[in-house]
Specification:
With 264 residues, the chain is mostly helical. It contains 12 helices and no strands. The chain has helices at 2-9, 12-31, 35-67, 75-93, 96-99, 109-112, 114-125, 127-152, 163-174, 179-187, 193-231, 240-263. α3 crosses α4 (75-93).
């Protein structure tokens, strides 16, 4: 019985059904945000939402029964269990804030679709490198923030009145959000301020932020390479029958060599 349930929950059609239910549930939750649609079809959408949750709970119960303790050894299974547990909270309490958590169910697509799982795995593997880049970026923002506060604290706009405001403005500049407007406003006080801003953009935007992209691309390539290595089958060891044939062929070749040497 358990093997039959396992073959069912691991089958491609069952996974496609779950994906379809997740997508349908996501569409319904999105339509609920439209007041006109909610007034007209609110009861239907609530019914669909409840049945989708029932499907998710039944799926988890079947997977728990099919895999037993092995269910908790897979991080993705634990992720699904957490998402469904959070989705049950709105029905237990009914508050509007908790009802907003129903959209968390859409995150289950991350565990169901292999391509999304690959992306998430690559992101997780890149966390140590990303933390190092964040440290470099934080140091850059701090140093440049102290410099900007000392140089442009009297500039109009209040962008660099204190260290916190300066670091926030510099972070805005790194993202490319209207940094030229900030620069030109500061240049009304210090015409040579463009040197600071251009240099910061070159170092912060074109160097540090591009490191994030390079790190993510490298992590993605490593993830794909590791999956390809896992798919390649290991060379099959020779079976006893094959070994016996090889031994006979070697003995036959040795006899042929002896006959040739005796004839010569």
């Amino acid at each position: 019985m358990r093997s039959q349930v396992r073959s069912l929950v691991d089958s491609a059609r069952f996974q496609q059904l779950i994906v379809a239910v997740i997508v349908l549930n996501a569409i319904v939750l999105g339509l609920e945000t439209a007041p006109a649609v909610a007034r007209e079809y609110g009861s239907i959408m609530d019914t669909v939402d409840r049945w989708a949750l029932v499907v998710f709970v039944v799926e988890l119960v079947l997977r728990l029964y099919a895999h037993g303790r092995e269910f908790f050894r897979d991080p993705w299974n634990c992720f699904d269990l957490l998402v469904v547990s959070v989705s049950l909270a709105p029905f237990a309490h009914g508050s509007s804030a908790l009802r907003a958590l129903r959209i968390v169910r859409v995150l289950r697509l991350l565990s169901v679709l292999p391509n999304l799982r690959r992306v998430v795995a690559a992101l997780l593997s890149a966390i140590p490198a990303v933390l190092s880049i964040v440290a470099v970026l934080s140091l850059l923002l701090y140093v440049a923030g102290v410099m900007a506060t000392n140089l442009y604290s009297t500039a109009p706009g209040g962008y660099f009145t204190d260290l916190g405001a300066s670091m926030l403005t510099l972070f805005q500049i790194i993202t490319g959000d209207a940094w030229s407007d900030v620069m030109r406003e500061v240049m009304t006080v210090d015409p040579l301020a463009w040197i600071f801003f251009v240099g910061f953009v070159l170092v912060g935007t074109f160097t540090v932020l591009n490191l994030f992209i390079a790190t993510m691309v490298s992590a993605m390539e490593s993830q794909i390479a590791s999956e390809k290595e896992a798919v390649i089958p290991e060379p099959r060891a020779a079976e006893p029958a094959d070994q016996a044939v090889l031994l006979e062929l070697r003995a036959l070749r040795a006899e042929i060599r002896e006959l040739r040497s005796a004839r010569d």
